[in-house]
Amino acid sequence: MAADSMQTFLNKHVEKIVLAAAIIIFVVALVVFVAMRDTVFGNQEQVRTNVEQAVKALVDARQAPTSLEKVLTPDERAALGIDQALPTGEQYLKDRDALPAAWDASIDKWIEPKKEGKVIIEAKPEVPVVMAVTDLQVFQGRGTTAEPVTNAVFKLEKPALSDIVWAGVVGQVDLTNQLAEYNKAHVPLDPSGILISKVELQRRELKPDGTWSEWKAVMPALASAVAAKWPKPPANPRDKAAAGAWYTACKTLQAEIRRVPFYTLVGKDKAGQTVDMVTGAVAGVEQPEMKRPEEAPPAAAAPVAQATAPAAAPEAAPAAPAGTASPWATAAPTVTQPAAGAHVPAAAARKHVTATLWAYDATVEPRKTYQYQMRVSVVSPIYSLQEVKDGKTRWALEFSGPWSAPSREVTIPGLVDFFFVGVAGSDKANLEVHRWILSQWVIQPSVQCNFGGPVAYVKRQKLVVPGARPGAKEVTTAEAINVDLNAEVLLVDVMRAFLYVPEGATRAIRTNILIYADARGQLNRRIEWDDKNASRAARAEREGGPGPVAPPPKTTTPPPPPPRAKTERTERTERPAVRPPR
Question: Is 375 helix (H, G, I), strand (E, B) or coil?
Answer without folding.
Answer: strand
